[in-house]
Amino acid sequence: MSDKFVVGYDGSVSARRALEFAVERAKVQGGTIVLAHVLEWSPYSFLTPTELEERHKRRREEMARAEEALASTVVAELKEAGVPVEVVIRYGNTADLLCKIASEVGAVQIVIGREGQSALEARIFGSVAGALVQAAPVPCTIVP
């Protein structure tokens, strides 16, 4: 069984750097990249049945768009480079889901990119990196 590296990927420049870092390790170790794309989705909403149905429809459409966008770009690029890749797309809290995905796939490491969030923003809103390093079931690498 090859090592699996979960990469939190949102299409940003920092996520791209994290992916490149993980790909280098996966190539050396004969590992697999698990491209994890998390769409933030708040469960705290009081909706009518009609609004709830519409929300679920939008959610399915958004997931399909994300999967198509990843498959036509990043996944194709990794496959062409000979790097095994899996894609996981979920809704919810990014740090929580990256931890859950890592456990589910038996990952050896989680890799994310760091956004240039100010200290004040991180204190008020929290950061994925901060939450992840406190809760991750495997080692985390935060790529600057």
Structure, explained:
This protein has 144 residues and is an alpha/beta fold. It has a single domain (4-143), classed as HUPs (Rossmann fold, 3-Layer(aba) Sandwich). It has 5 helices and 5 strands. It has a 5-stranded parallel sheet with strand order 3-2-1-4-5, sandwiched between helices. Helix 1 (13-29) links the parallel strand 1 (4-8) and strand 2 (32-39). Helix 3 runs parallel beside helix 5 (128-135).
CATH topology: Rossmann fold
Determine the number of helices (DSSP H or I, runs of at least 4 residues).
Answer: 5
Record the strand order, biggest sheet: 3-2-1-4-5
Give the ordered list of helices and strands. Answer: EHEHEHEHHE
What do the pLDDT scores average to? 84
In CATH terms, the superfamily is: HUPs
Give the termini distance in whole angstroms. Answer: 30 Å
Rg over alpha carbons: 16 Å
Shape: globular
The main pleated sheet reads as:
5 strands, parallel
Q: What would you say the CATH architecture is?
A: 3-Layer(aba) Sandwich
Flag low-confidence runs. none
- When the domains are counted, the total is 1
Q: SS-based structural class?
A: alpha/beta
Number of extended strands? 5
